[in-house]
Amino acid sequence: MAAWMLLFPACGWSLSVAFINPGKSNEAYWLTVTQAMQAAAFKLGIALEVTYLERDHAKAVDVARDIAARPSKRRPDYVLLGNEGGFGPACLRILDAAGIPVLMVFNGISDLSQRKLSGAPREKYKLWIGTLEPGAEDAGYLTAKALIEKGRSAAWATKGESLHLVALSGDKLTPSSFLRAQGMRRAVVEAGDVVLDQEVFSGFNRERAAEQMQWLLQRYPQTRLVWAGNDLMAFGAMDAAKSHNLLPGRDMLFSGINTSAEALEGLRSGDLSALAGGHFMLGAWALVMVYDHHHGRDFSQTEGVETVQPMFSLFSPEQAARFSQLYGEGRFDAIDFKRFSKFHNPQLKRYNFEFQQLLGRKG
Q1: Which domain holds residue 231?
Q2: Do 220 and 153 belong to one domain?
Q3: What is the per-residue pLDDT across 117-137, written as a single tens digit (0 to 9) for each?
Q4: Secondary structure (3-state) at 67
Q5: Which of 106, 234, 258, 301 is the most exposed place for a label (fewest CB within 10 A)?
Q6: pTM across the whole model
Q7: How does pLDDT run across 19-37, given as a tens digit for each residue?
Q8: Handedness of CA 55, 58, 60, 62 (dihedral sign)
């Protein structure tokens, strides 16, 4: 069953938004997404409702039906949902028929067969107002490039010989997973001295990554670089490496994506050699966009209806410490989200959702 929570009651707020969260209710990344959204909703006066799918992505259709079946006074003004598992078009059809505007977030509809069914935003489904996605390819590219650079300077690197890398990607259906891996492959091609021995799909799961890494190490004993599409898979691969008496940061180098407490500590300790993050803020930025849309500032006029925003930052150990100091344990209440709103700042021409700006100071 999906886990449901109403973070703010609808009474007394300027608008209401329901977010169909594809992750687990106890999963660090998706909890952080919700915490950032909660802070943004409070600052913007939005009644926020979150339903966790617990990674059972097919449940998104049931949640959409539940929202559509509510009496009109209990329906949210907007729904935020992604296309994890490819269930986005079905949800769009249900919610559009019910008269509820939808902003797709994190993962849009890029598959050609799905595009034939759904069209583009505001075409077939008039209330599909747009899509907001992070520059997912950036994350894969930045972490792979940094990982390769660390590998070249490692004590065991031999001049003139290739570096061997294995990659742990998420899944084959989620667009952001594909794009992260695409960025990784671009960095490998650019490097020229790196061999990608194999890419496997670990489903963003730590245990599965650990199992796969066991046989990858047996198949490719020359591997010294491990690229992972998120932090959980990186730590699963580390677990396997340690069982072979290989020390992360010394005998093998690992990269990850996300800003979990464990990942930030891994970067500071040297277990992780490269880490990118910041896209967990996308849900909060999406609330800024629907808030502006609700108040007559339609983002389509300047951003277009399908927006890919640069959101990822490559973290240094010092920036990881800064992040923990400012936003550790999900403390995002110091951010002034109205500062990023076009409604509150009519002089703003384009949105700037880059994460690096939040590390410079609070707000």
Answers
A1: 137-277
A2: yes
A3: 888 999 999 999 999 999 999
A4: helix
A5: 301
A6: 0.86
A7: 999 988 988 889 999 999 9
A8: negative
